[in-house]
Specification:
By secondary structure, the chain is mainly alpha-helical. It has a domain at 62-111 and 124-167. The protein has 7 helices and no strands. Helix 1 (2-18) crosses helix 2, helix 2 packs antiparallel against helix 5 and helix 5 packs antiparallel against helix 6 (128-134). The radius of gyration is 19 Å and the shape is globular. The relative contact order is 0.13.
């Protein structure tokens, strides 16, 4: 975890310098740092699950590519999640990319009070809250954090069960 936290700290520095804004404070930096650290721990749990359940590295990388593609699509980065059917909404909650994206969006857009719009004839968002509403996000962070921690624990548990299974099967030979 210390290595993950160091890498998250580096990423957080990059994020805050890219999003140079006057309304960011140290508390915002800490919020970004918390989210990037939680996301990296969740990613580590995903890797633990894959390595615990699959023996072959080649097979694992072959399986991971389509899983990660679906997870990226279901994160809401490329696709408006409000337009999903009820059946595909399930995949949103299984995506390791969805929760960090939602948390970072909430942290960023909830601090934007007013958006200037000089374009006539086009609909414009007037505040960050409207942006969050358009993309189907609320402004509450607590529930999303609980869901991210839950997904992380489930992935670690599956990885642990897979590792135990591999040890038992391996000892039979």
């Amino acid at each position: 975890i210390p290595k993950l936290m160091l890498m998250s700290l580096f990423l957080t520095f990059i994020l805050t310098f890219l999003l140079k804004s006057t309304n960011y404070q140290f508390s915002t930096f800490l919020e970004y740092f918390f989210v990037t650290t939680a996301a990296s721990i969740c990613a580590a749990s995903y890797g633990t699950m894959i390595s615990g359940c699959i023996d072959s590295t080649d097979l694992a990388t072959t399986i991971m590519a389509p899983i990660e593609l679906v997870a990226m699509i279901m994160a809401g980065i490329f696709y408006n999640l409000r337009t999903l059917t009820w059946l595909t909404t399930i995949f949103k909650y299984l995506s390791i990319f969805h929760y960090p994206h939602e948390l970072l969006s909430i942290i960023h857009w909830s601090k934007v009070q007013k958006i200037e719009c000089d374009v006539k004839g086009l609909p414009c968002f007037e505040s960050g809250s409207e942006v969050l509403e358009e993309y189907g996000y609320g402004e509450e962070i607590g529930g999303v954090v609980v869901e991210l921690v839950g997904l992380t624990c489930i992935l670690y548990f599956i990885g642990m069960v897979g590792t135990i299974r591999r040890r038992i099967v391996g000892s039979m030979y």
